[in-house]
Each structure stands twice: as structure tokens, then as C-alpha cells.
Amino acid sequence: MKEKDATYLNCVHCGKCLPVCPSYSIGLNEFFSPRGRVRLVLTDNADKLPLRASKVAESMSACLLCGRCVKICPNDVKIDELVIDEKIKLNELAGRAFSIDKIALKALKNKRKVLLKSALKIANIPFVEKLAGRYAPQPEGKSFIQNKDLIFIADIAGKNAGGKNIFTAGYFGGCVFNNIYPQISSDTVTSLTKNGIEVFVPKMQGCCGLPFISSGDVESFRELALNNARAFKDKNLDYIVTSCASCSYSINKLYPLYFDANDEGYAEVRQFSEKLLNIWSFFKELEKKGVKIKTGKLKKEIEAVFHIPCHLSNTEGFKPSSASENLIGEAGFIADKITGLKLKPLKYNYCCGNGGMFNITHYDLSREITKRKFEEIKEASPQEILTSCSGCIFSLKDQKGILKKNERLAVSHLINVYAESLKESKE
Ligand code: SF4
Ligand code: SF4
């Protein structure tokens, strides 16, 4: 693994990170705050920890790895990396006990995702759902990737790129958009081909590994990273694109941190990570390269809010350049291209409460954070909620006990709306 700076030594306990931390916001427990986690790790590393390892594990596992504290910290303390490192350490100590998160991880690692689909089918049986006391997402159609590689030809061969070039992109869907919400994968690919991009979707791609690293299982994480890098290798692609904010956090930020130069596959993983862009950055990049990004029109106007995924808003180096981008981050670039989409602002842009494995290991806490999110959503009174992360979609669709049945709000990916608007495009 890459030698990381011990940034936690820079913590001056100023507390600036407390108000932005979703796990601290519920119950105001210092033990569940970024500053509290830094202190725990400091004392643990100095072998002065008065607590049992299970107590430290509880604090670390209640971290959503949202990165909000990192963004606000004046001393550049990388709390998310600190938490992951501590989880890896604790995971090695803990062994392999039976638990709900271990079952979920097994289902995600299963190559053809048969286990994932079967587990969700069972979890959706009403009495099982009641027994488990939690919501389980329902797969919306057949998986996008079946059992062969997919190639999608650019719709307007070379026209958008000034007739000089057709860019090629690999599509990394991730487990959720490939298997549970396949329409998001299909709409992403359509939006790309309609903008003159040739798209390759390798069947060998799998989970991005985030649920594994956030459980401290670095070995599985590395195995999955290498598998993904090799799935896209040798195709000579210009770019690799994902429409899931959490997948891009995992691939762009964490892959380089958990591989070092001596590891098998280092160069392949590095190259894969450097080539991958989230869908919104990709469209901006295309425009910089001279591709005129198409505008679309919706048949019927909609008023929506866009929930900014934590892993999108914390993208390093992002500079907004339009009013929509100021409002919703990078996604605003595409929102501007959709006539008929009216975006309403959210007051605080709270976290949705998902946090990947956090929603599985701390379902009740996760729901409390989601409830707070819905307070600001209700205040904006939209017709629909848009976002661009698989985890956020899970949590935002889980509205039972938060909204009344007749108040149900549709949740979609912004790319669904863009693809819909392109159907009406005259360009
Ligand atoms: S904002 Fe940074 S320096 Fe201040 S308490 Fe939080 S982690 Fe420490
Ligand atoms: S990453 Fe998010 S949940 Fe974890 S300590 Fe930081 S703000 Fe809190």
C-alpha cells in the first residue's frame, strides 16, 4: 500500500468538522464524530487505548466515508483514509464472524450476481422484509450486462467531434446500475452514443470494491480493482466512464491509495483509475475537446431537486462555471442542456444517510439521517428527486415511515432525464 501521510497528527481538535458530519448529527455523540475518531486512532496507535477494540470498531463502522469532514478541515486531516486504515486493522483482528454485512459482501463478490439477485428476491418477500425490519431494493428489470461484452456504435459517426475523431469510452456500471437499476446503465450509454461516443461494456467488470474496503477487507478490494482494470485493458479506449459517484470515489481516489508500485497489477490499476471519469466530468471534458454536447427537451416540464451525492460534491478540484453548477455541482452542466427541467434548490444539501455498508450495519441511524434529508426535500416541494449515485438512490427510495403513502416521490438519476430529453432533440 502507498505510504500515506499521518495527517491525523495535524488535528488541533477545533471542531469545525462536527456540524458537517452526518454520524455526529444524530445524537451529537463525540465518539461518532470526525474529531472523536481522530482521537481514538491517536490513542490506539500510542497503545494507550482504554477501550475494547469492539468499541473502536463501533465508532469506525458508523462513519459513512462521506468525506464532508475532509473537505472542511483547515488542517487537511484525511479522516476517511484514517477510518479505512483503522477498519483494515480491526478487520484483521476480528476474523470472519457471521453477520449481515458479510452476507451482503458475499452476494456482491459473486461474479454473475446471481446471489445478489436471489438475496434481494428473498429480502423483498413481505414477511422477510418485516422480520428484517428494513427495506430492500427491488431489481428493476433484467441485468444490463448479461453474458457477453457489449459494443454500442456512435449514433452520428464523428459529426460531433468535427468529423476528425470518434472518441471511445468504456462504461463501468457497478453492481447496482448493472443489476438493480439497469435503465440507468442503458440511459447512460444512450446519452453517450447520441453525443457521438462509441461505448464498450466488458462483461468481466464487477463491483468497484467500495463495500469491501469500507468493511476493512482490503484483500477483496484489491482483487476486485485488478479484475476491473483487466476487464477494460487492451481495448485502447480514450476514456472510461461511470455514472455512479461512489464508484468514482472508489476507483479514482482509493485504488491508487491501496496499491503500491511493488504490487501485482499496479500499472494496470493505476491506468484504469486515471482514465476513469464520472459522467458529469466526462461531458465537460468532451466539450473541452470540441464536442458540442447535445441539448434536449422534455415533453412535459418537471420541477425537481438534485441531491448532490457526498462523493460527487467532494470531487477534488471541481470549479463551478454556471448558475446550475453552483447549485448542484458538476451535474449542473448537463442539467443546463435539458429544456423543461426546473431545478429547485435544497437549503443545506444534507447527506442522504446511505454510506454504503453503513446503511446495512447501522440501518436505524441511516434512516435518521435520511429523515433529515427529507425535511429539506419536503421544504422544496419538488415533483421528483434526482441524483447520481447508487447508494443515494437506495436510501432516497426508502420512503416508508418518512413520507405518507400518497406522498411518494419518484427518485431517478439525472441521466434518465437527459436521455429522455434527447428523444425529443431535433439536433
Ligand atoms: S476540522 Fe480538522 S483539525 Fe479541526 S477537529 Fe476536525 S479533523 Fe481536527
Ligand atoms: S467521513 Fe463523513 S461520517 Fe465519517 S467522520 Fe467524516 S463527516 Fe463524519
Helix tally equals 22
Compute the number of structural domains: 3
CATH architecture classification name of the largest domain = 3-Layer(aba) Sandwich
Please identify the structural class as seen in this structure: alpha/beta
- Associated small molecules: iron/sulfur cluster
Characterization of the model:
This protein has helices at 22-25, 34-45, 53-61, 68-72, 79-94, 100-109, 114-123, 126-132, 174-179, 182-194, 210-213, 218-232, 245-257, 266-275, 279-288, 310-313, 323-328, 332-335, 358-361, 363-380, 390-397, 414-423; strands spanning 150-152, 168-172, 198-201, 239-242, 276-278, 296-306, 338-343, 384-387, 410-413. The chain has 427 residues and is of the alpha/beta class. The radius of gyration is 21 Å and the shape is globular. The chain folds into 3 domains: 7-94, Fumarate Reductase Iron-sulfur Protein, Chain B, domain 2 (Orthogonal Bundle), CATH 1.10.1060; 150-286, 3-Layer(aba) Sandwich (Rossmann fold); 293-423, Rossmann fold. β8, α21 and β9 (410-413) form a beta-alpha-beta unit. The structure holds iron/sulfur cluster (2 copies). One iron/sulfur cluster binds at residues 20-23, 34, 37, 63-69, 79-80.
